[in-house]
Amino acid sequence: MAVTPVEQDYEFRRRSLIDKLQRDRNIRTARTAEAMLAVPREKFLPTHMGHRAYDDEPIPIGSEQTISAPHMVAIMSDALDVRDGMRILEIGTGSGYQAAVLSMLVGPAGRIISIERIDALADSARLALREARATNVDVKLSDGSLGFAAGSPYDRIIVTASAPEVPPPLLAQLAPDGILLVPVGGRECELVRIRKTTTGFTRESLGACAFVPLLGAHGQDSTRGAQ
Predict the structure, then answer these.
(1) Which residues are catalytic?
(2) Based on the structure, what is the number of domains in the chain?
(3) Which of 92, 103, 121, 221 has its CA 20 to 30 A from that of 214?
């Protein structure tokens, strides 16, 4: 099938962005660069926002949610240290873009379970993931702050919204030697990486970040109960 001029333009802009993220050290591994090159970000945006697909900034996708800036997707993907065949739980599907990048990193033998609490976003993410041929991603509608125990344990867990504290269910669902990556705080928060060891958990801060709030039983609205 012939590539259209619009598709050629998107590909050129995608490569230019990845090159910049590598120069700025936001992308530190070749695997993350290759995964992001393989995912057409424009497919994960509302049609009228497609022209902004390769701007390095968060973009509204409806329902008071955003698609993360590409540099943050790169930083989080690198920090997870994903390998072929891994089983990953993502909390906060949103547009589906981060899940698509992770799907490339785990390869055909791996699996991504992604949890979304908003019907409309779950539906649009499923469609975008199909169009991007990310066939190893399963989007489920649920309270992500509770994780997804039925599919545990997970080699990696990534949270794409800010939690007031690390949700205990996610720690319980992490496999031995697993990594949990979660923004902790308010809208202005710190990116925390937790590793499960034979003696417990280690915790390190990867720096400041900004995310929409995590909602649910262990989310920012937990004092009012899960929504």
Answers:
(1) 68
(2) 1
(3) 103
